[in-house]
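Blinded run. Sample ID left blank on purpose so nobody reads anything into the name before looking at the predicted structure. Input follows.
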Amino acid sequence: MSDKQHTLGLPFEYQQKPEYFDAHNVNESTESKNAFIEKLLKAQNVKTVLDMTCGTGSQVFYLAKRGYEVIGSDFSPALLVQARKKATAEGLNLTFIDGDMRTLKAGQFDAVITIFSAIGHLSKPDFEKALQNIHTNLKDGGVYVFDIFNLQAITDDIIADFAMDIESVVNGDKVRNRQHSEIDRENGLLTSHDHYTILKDGCEPEVHTNTFSLQIYTAKQLRVMLERNGFDVIHHYDMDGNDFIADKSLNILTVARKKAIE
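Blinded prediction complete.
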């Protein structure tokens, strides 16, 4: 993705404070989610993986440690700096490249992944461009695994539950993030408003506000878009590993296969 061409806005950590990314995006459930993704890849006999929205590398590290040949790419150079630092600290020889999922040509892989609602940062037309490009980066019969919030299941009560008030300590800085969200169901836009307070020793508090939207979908909308761009849907799951329930599952984790050329 290119933030210069972006109209939905981006989370605060993506560029301004990448050192805070893991504290607010990696939690106790991340390991189980990564394990389920790996289970899906293993079931499809995947050996090589391109993570086109790797961020600071959560899935890249997880898969590499389990024997996969994996490359990470992301539109945010700042997040990739964090990923490379982590790889160096762990003594891992991993490849992270600057790349836009709509245009990056990195080779051909058994699987492409874009995890944790990453596609939501693209408009619908740009997601279609990304699908066409992902198709190019897959071997014949390769699979695309991704997730996004499920528009059909997000009720007003769910929106209220999305509200957060999180305090953390990052490199000695005390960080408080308060967030509330709203939904535009007609256009499929989930908009979040962040209010950050950062306390550093001996300094006045820093206050940052930020608003960004995610383009979200129903499973039916995803299926239509995937089929139009050269994919067959293998299965939809909930992010917790259970089967997808259209009006209950908050996330749609999709496994789609690159169609054979007829």
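Unblinding after everyone has recorded impressions. The longest strand covers residues 138-149.
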